[in-house]
User: Fold this.
Amino acid sequence: MSDTDFSYPWFANLQALLDGQYVADKLPHAILLTGETYSGKLVFAIQLAKRFLCDETKALAAVTPTPCNDCASCHLFEAGTHPDFSHVAPQDSKQIKIDQVRGLIAWVATTSQRNGLKVAIVDPAEQMNHQSANALLKCLEEPSGNTFIILVSSRSGSLLPTIRSRCQQYAIGLPERSQALQWLHAALPNRDDYELLLDIAGGLPLAVTMQLNDDYLASRKVVVEQLAKLCGNQTTALKSVAEVQKIEIEDFLDICQSIFSDAVRYDATKDINAIRNSDIADSIVQIQNHTSVDFLIAAYNRSCADLRIVRSTSNPNKQQLLEALWIDLRSGNPHVISQFGL
Ligand SMILES: [Zn+2]
Assistant:
């Protein structure tokens, strides 16, 4: 099975909606597909492209629910040489550059080489710089009759409003909890802590399988311990940084975000069951006890902002980012914390 063949049960409703619109010739040609990191939105977009282009779809006059993997189109798609499919993604930097968008515009203007349909994916769309986004606008304004352009984004709010307004927006949402748990049972048959894992992952089963490895789970314990000490004035910022600096920066910030989110939730409810990271709930309560809600909200927002920096910058200065965050948290001052990292 190739990477493009995964279909997750929580895709079913959106898949049925888009397939129905396609068959009725009502699917908009500019599509904005949104969803959180690890929602599976790129997999969905790629599979949509492969299914639309599959020769089975043409033969059936309806969209094949899964790619046949046996036709000429599916073979070309898997080989990465399908002439009617274009995937625009950042190359050597984390930005989608103007030359790439110009290439896409030129490709859109060409005629389909197979069954009359072309599909392009731009991912992550928020990584287009201003110039690239403006260039793409023209393409979205004058959609070609046989080309679908799918923009994939986890931060659609940071796209130009003019881009958003030209696209029909669809969201990959969270699966039903029972559906997610059932899927996790099958995906990770040797574990027995599915409820906890799904809570830590914010309800996203793919975050469990792709992000929550043993290192990540161990790192949470280190981070919450250090945060509890930091907020309780039991350590210095630099001493504490030394304890956490080996953790991969994206995991580290994701963990901070999750811990502060729990602390804010606990502050509001005083209900320990509201804490998603239930196995480290005692330390999260300590953090809440030592701080104010303004501090917790500022710390949560700062973790999110720093995470965005790490995910969207090609070479963030990780050490500087980490030290700045830790020193600002140690200050205990929400206004200091609110100033974004680098
Ligand atoms: Zn096929």
User: Anything to note?
Assistant: The CA atoms of residues 133 and 160 lie 7 Å apart. Residues 249-269 form the longest helix (21 residues). The beta strands are 30-34, 85-88, 118-122, 147-153, 168-171. The first strand starts at residue 30 and ends at 34.
